[in-house]
Each structure stands twice: as C-alpha cells, then as structure tokens.
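Amino Acid Chain and Its Fold in Token Form
===========================================
Structure side: the spatial fold of the chain, written down as a series of whole-number tokens.
Position: the record begins directly beneath this header, with no further notes in between.
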Amino acid sequence: MIDIKDIIKPENLVFKKSKVLTDMEMHYCPGCSHGVVHNLIAEVIEDMDIQNSVIGVAPVGCSVLAYNYLHIDWHEAAHGRAPAVATAVKRLMPDKFVFTYQGDGDLAAIGTAETIHACNRGEDITIVFINNGIYGMTGGQMAPTTIEGMVASTCPAGRDLKRDGYPIKITEILATLPGTCYVTRQAVHTPGSVRKTKIALRKAFENQIAKKGTSIVEVVSTCNSGWRMTPVKANNWMVENMFPVYPLGDIKDE
C-alpha cells in the first residue's frame, strides 16, 4: 500500500500554487487566458523574491479585479490611464517594481496616448498587455486590435477594412520608440508557450533593475465567451487567425 507521505515528498512535486496568489476563486470564464497570466506573474514575483517590492496598476476591463488574486500592493487606474499612474508610482518610489496589467481596448484605444508617451519617455515600468481582439468585459465590441473579418457585437458581419480601418499593431509601434528596451509578443495556449511567456515576464521585471526603460509583454489571448466559442475552438481559431496578424516572438530586445 502506498503511503500518501511518500507521494507528497518535495522530489515528487509537479506543481505548487504560488504564495503570491490569494485564496480567492477566480471569476474568469473557463478557458480565459487571464488566470494563466496571473499565475505566471505570481510565479515570477515569487521566484525573484520581490513580493514586498511590487506595485501593480490595474485599470478598467477584465483586468480590473486582478488585485483580488495577486497578494501585492495595487493601485487602480481610470480606463486607459494605467501607464500614467505607473509613471507617477515609479518616479515616487524608484526602487519598486511597477507594472501595469491592461487589455487591448484599454491600452490600444482609450489609453493610446498614455501608453505611447510613457514608452517614449522610457519609464522604467513593465506593461503586460492582454490582446484578445475585442472588448471582453463590456459585451464583445470591436476593438482596435480586432482583425479583418473577425466578428464582434458591433460588427456582426466581421471587421470591414474600408469601413472600420485596419487592426492596429500597437506593439510594433511601441517597439519603434527609443524609450522601449524590450518588446515581445507571446501566448499561453500550450505548455511551451506558457514557459516562454514566463521567461519574458521575468526579463521584463529584471529590466527595471538595470533601468533600461519600458518593457512590454503582449500576450495574444482568447476570449471564448466574447468570441462565442468553446475554449478548444477558441485556441484553434487564435492560432489560425490571430497569429498570422500578431506573430509571436521578440520584436525588440536591447
């Protein structure tokens, strides 16, 4: 008979919940990418042993409740204004690790000005950018990142380039600014992609120690509820349709 004490020995441990995560049950829809990214941020913070030195800034959107799940100091920002708030926090407390956690409607639409100018100034902050191509929280409306032909509640026949314009590749735009030191695009739909995203997040935080400037980690994500798909179908659709427009990999690394 196997003794349970032998099973739970440290050498047999496959996964352990990060102490940076709270015990609150996450509200995200099944299959949502947010929970995975939250866990990765928590693991990076724990691995770097900086839990007491991190300040997160969460604006409006599905990301607004991130402070319920990560046991760190948080500052809530108005919609789109997270980079401006993070700038103030970092300048007042330069020894802290400051990051924003933003969606595409927030970062690439309502907060375009704040995002671009914070990056152009080279603020020593980390921007975590969740790109699922729609406004997820408020009803699945078309966002600046909605790709051509993609269905949203405000374009039920799909995005029409002549009518709606082109999807904005805000991450590529930010990579052209001299204040950015690290710009990367990742995903969390497979174990391998999860590992790469964790490496990217850690590098982005470590860049603050070196005072290199602004680091941006975009995570191309699914919103199976907003897309009206099962989690599996949403992942497949993302790979087939989102990745050709938003290819994964480092865009800038200095």
About this structure: The longest strand covers residues 180-187. The domain at 29-253 is CATH 3.40.50.970 (Rossmann fold). The CA atoms of residues 29 and 242 lie 20 Å apart. Strands lie at 54-58, 73-76, 97-103, 126-131, 134-135, 141-142, 180-187, 214-220, 249-253.
